[in-house]
Amino acid sequence: MKKVSLAYVILAVCLIYFVFIPKALAVDYSLAWPGILPDNRLYKLKVLRNKIIYRMIINPVKKVEFDLLMADKTIYATKLLTDKREIALAKDTALKGENYYSMLVQDYNKTLLSGKKIPQDLDRKITLAAIKHQEIFTDLEGRVSGGDKETFRIVNNFSKINYDFIVGLRNPKK
Amino acid sequence: MEFLISFYDNALIYYPNVFFAVLFFISILGIILVSIGIIVFGKKIRRVIEEIKNDLKQIKIKERKKISFAHMVRVFLARNRIFFLQVIIVIFIRINTALGHIESRTERIIKKIGKEILIEE
Fold first, then answer.
1. pLDDT at B1 over 90
2. Which residues of A touch B20 (CB under 8 A)?
3. Interface test with B, best of A45, A57, A63, A100 (most B CBs within 10 A)
């Protein structure tokens, strides 16, 4: 009887450790579906379209929103490319994705300088996205080897720096 | 205005393909309308130009007619100069005879009057 109950306890602990704790720790933020991936022939056309869209957006807050969406899509595309074992392309895409987040930081700064407020919901999304990106980069670091790991580590660091910058913009030192 | 800008930005960010498709169709519609406009207005403009051309032609024809009438008269005169001179001579002779007739009549009247005056004296 004692053995059975001990087995139940161990099972319960395992269940909590492997199922509930990771779910609780994982960021509750879903990335947007990237659509066609960079290995597609039409991807350049999509990039051109996105550049045109970026120039056509009027509201600076919406520009920040667009940057966030693009960063999410590109980083999700990185994950999908890694799943397809196209690591070289995934590394490039990761860097481009983080570049979108850098653009977001710049636009965030511009928006604040122009005297406009970032909505709280968007602010929350920016934070969650940064954490999610870092989570994905950490995951990808574990899935690749050698020099590829280094690239994802660098991108992860970029992500942290960018997020720190955002935090600095939110709480400027007087 | 703020709402419109927000709507435009949202459409651009979240439905870019729909946005560009609509833009594409609007531009095609614009091109079609402009071309139709050009055709219709072109016809109208062509008609106006033709009317102006016709008016100019008519004016030219009238001027030519005037010129041709004078020319014809000149040609007629040149060709029938002798006949014309004969006509003028006849007219002058007639005028001369008429004047001579009047002269003789007046002389006669004066003579009569003179005789009557002498008789009375």
1. no
2. 49
3. A57
User: Residue B116's pLDDT is what?
Assistant: 84
Mean pLDDT: which of A21-30, A148-157, B61-70 is highest?
Answer: A148-157
Task: Give how far B19 is from chain A: nearest CA, Å.
Answer: 10
Rounded Cα distance, A34 and A82, in Å: 14
Residues B64 and B89 in one domain: no
pLDDT score of A14 more than 60: no
Residues B94 and B69 reside in one and the same domain:
no
Residues B67 and B88 in one domain: no
b/e A6-29 (16+ beta carbons within 10 angstroms → b): eeeeeeeeeeeeeeeeeeeeeeeb
Over residues B28-65, the pLDDT tens digits come to 999 999 999 999 888 888 888 888 888 888 888 877 76
Rounded to the nearest angstrom, the minimum Cα separation between B49 and chain A is 44
Domain enclosing residue B100, as ranges: 81-121
* Chain A residues whose beta carbon lies within 8 Å of the beta carbon of residue B13: 53, 57, 62, 65-66, 69
A34-170 is a CATH 1.20.58 domain: yes
